[in-house]
Amino acid sequence: MNHKLLILRPDEQSKPVQMRLQQQAKQLELGDLKTECFSMVKISSYDDPNSSYVQLLAEPWDAGLMVSVNAARYFAEQKQAWAADVPVPMARWFAVGPTSAAAIAATVGRPVTCPWRQHNSDALLDLPELQQVAGQRWLLVRGHGGREVFAETLRARGADVHYLEVYQRTPVAIKPQLITQWQTQVQGIMVTSAEQLDYFLTAMPSSASTWLAQCYWVVASERLARMLPASYQRACVVADSATPFALTQAWVKAIKNQQDTIL
User: Cα angle vertex 124, ends 227, 228, to 5°?
Assistant: First the structure.
């Protein structure tokens, strides 16, 4: 096997995945695996005009959720800048997966609960602790204009949900030369974010559709798989989560599927 895998993810989040992929490729004697990371999204701090850190942190909260590592990172930076002396609420904190849970725990100094097997919003909402939330006050730390599914579900269950938006996303343009280069070098694409996938597919010219249909895909959820055009789903493998271990296992399955197809 001699090919390149394109990982649509920020560099800092891709490095653990790249390391595990390289180790797995060597162990299975799959040859030289090259990886390239590209993020379709630029992340930057966002000053929420609807919230005051001092006032927000002083309020009583039953539970809180930070939707990602970025949410934990920018929450920590902004709290240090604007409310360094105000303690983090003594609430129960939740995360979608273990990576974000570790970042949140380091930020709030408290244990963080996340789903064990699958790491997505549906699995989080299925936790026993989130079934009886009527009357509870929840603080949801997220990006500007983030998904509403989690908040809407909690509100339907009777919770009082408040947002704190701490970062914003901006689409990144891809140079035509880079797309041409990918078409000649890349045989597989890995993506863990719906936003990354949406921006990527939107940026692709129609001339790239044949290449994209020939690639194998590794995605982090069924939701992402459903976002792919039908012709791309032919060689799509869904990982159990966005952790490096789960993504690597899904990649191994995708490679074996490719080999079986050739045989």
Answer: 5
